[in-house]
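hiii, so i know i said id send this last week but things got crazy w the move. better late than never?? heres the sequnce for the chain we talked about at the cafe, plus the structure i predicted for it. fair warning i was half asleep when i ran it
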Amino acid sequence: MTQHYMSSRDPWEAAYLYSPEALFVADIDGTLSHWSESFGHTVGHAATPGTAFFQLFHDDDREAARAKWSVLLETPGAVELCGRVMTAGNVYASFSCVLRRAPHGQAVYGSLHPTSGAVDLPAAGPGKGEDADMLRALSDNLPVIVWSCDAAGVITRHDGRGLAGLGLKRGQLVGTNLFDVFASAPEGTENVRRALRGCPSHSMSHVPANNSFWENWMVPIQSPLGNVESVIGLSLDVSEAKRAEEELRLRLLQIQKQQEVIGKLSTPIIQVWDGVVALPMVGVVDSARTADVMQNLLDEIVRTSARYAILDLTGVEMVDTQVANHLIKLVNAIRLLGAGGIICGIRPSVAQTIVELGLDLDSMVTRSNLRAGIMFCINQMRQPATTPAANGSSGR
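okay and structure toks below
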């Protein structure tokens, strides 16, 4: 805010206010308190009451400015410092600043002088005023890198808190050519080339040096004539989300393996005699579990060349229509492999359900318990001339 003085005020105050020099007054701690119109025109919206003098400088020059200020507090004479100052045009420009402490030590007087031949560097991207302030707040507080390059690939902006994770300083790559700096990452530079051709792009990238993952957006900026003049890029560090996703994937894989082990333990296939395998089924039997049982049992019959397979339902309290149909299909599949299927241990409740469903088990061999089923298989194997498929009788 520029201070306005009535014409009746001290002419020295008016001379200070309207001086062609960029003059300012700051408190001993560096807080700006007064400035000339020329100073306000030079730094623009950055000159507000309570702004610290050091905040006008580029991040890389700020510590040097503080050091000079400390020297000023211990020296009665003038001190000069040089650095990049954010101007009203929303760019950083090189300035020489002359500072001198007031005789009583409670204020500091200073003036800004542009350095001849200085090259302006973008300070806050395409926006100005509040938009630039919001962009600065986002880049300072989020794990992002905000960058831009011109049509030739020269980096004109390189900012954001995310740079620290890559071991880079803000503005470090400004003025370098993006295609030279990232020549070893052709996929990323190709996305920039696409944006320079007018096509916005979105990609994911991985930095092996620190095992970080980045989500990148690149937006072309066109002139009124439609020519792409520059590209604005935003890179967001998604390493934590990526690691959480990988950890979740590994946990799901572990759970899947545990479920497979539990499934095998809950339906163990046991070789109870030479040429005879048994499958004790316990607990709730649903369609999915029965389908797994069918596959595992058929594989085991082929692997062991078993002649008989016993399905022990002693531990099964209830079956439904689909499960009963699966059991019938399982016995039929066993027969197709040249073996015999025996069902034993059917509980009264299960038997009643099967009868109510109207399922025909006359063609199946059933026995009251596992012992009876094993004895049936042994007796049948003592009769070589009798094939398993020919013995479909029921009994105890």
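btw The chain has a mean pLDDT of 79. thought thatd interest u
miss u guys!!
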